[in-house]
Amino acid sequence: MGSSNRGQPIVIADYDPAWVAKFEAARDSMFAACGREAFVAIEHIGSTSVPGLAAKPIIDMMPGLRSLDDAPPIIARLVALGYQYVPEFEQDTASGPGMPHRRYLRGNDGDGRRAYHVHMVEHGGDFWTAHLLFRDYLRRHPEAAEAYAQLKRELATGFNATITSTSDINVGYTDRKTEFVEDIVARARAERAPR
User: Fold this and answer.
1) Is 115 helix (H, G, I), strand (E, B) or coil?
2) Domains plus CATH for the chain?
3) pLDDT profile of the chain (195 residues), mean per 10
4) Which residues of 98-128 are buried (b: 16+ CB within 10 A; e: fewer)?
5) What is the 3 state secondary structure string of 4-37?
6) Is the Cβ–Cβ distance between 107 and 58 less than 8 Å?
7) pLDDT value at position 81?
């Protein structure tokens, strides 16, 4: 794992309506660089995509491809736009299992701060479906979004209180969030199931 995930305090910011415009601008630049036809869709996911939800101020984007076989030339164009491709997350690491079904890139804003996480996956696959179920459930259920914000603030406070230069954000903070996310995805699936 890169050093950028180590030893940094977790900052949870109040919702910022500007996050939508940041997503749209980044999506439009991807369309311009790669052509709209390169993607089935590009979705805004994660906490910044849920109105009113406090979040780490990093925009999560999910480009959906017809096939991951289409990814290499798209990755090259996104790298030319300034994104950094991080292939090591496709392999298992000490922090957890890899995601061979995802091509992950990250991008910075003009100040050099991390501003974007790009999760390129096959449109309609498990990752795609689960992330949209989670986002849409939180959009429909403000009480669940508020519970998620509260959990993130508690976890960030705990992580920040014990941080060292080698602390890994994925241990503790991300793990505990995963339980909540899985519960919400299960609720969303149940809500969608025919009665």
Assistant:
1) strand
2) 3-190 (3.30.460.10)
3) 57 94 98 98 97 95 98 98 94 83 94 94 97 98 96 87 67 78 96 85
4) eeeebbbbbbeeeeeebbbbbbbbbbeeebb
5) HHECCCCCCECCCCHHHHHHHHHHHHHHHHHCHH
6) no
7) 96
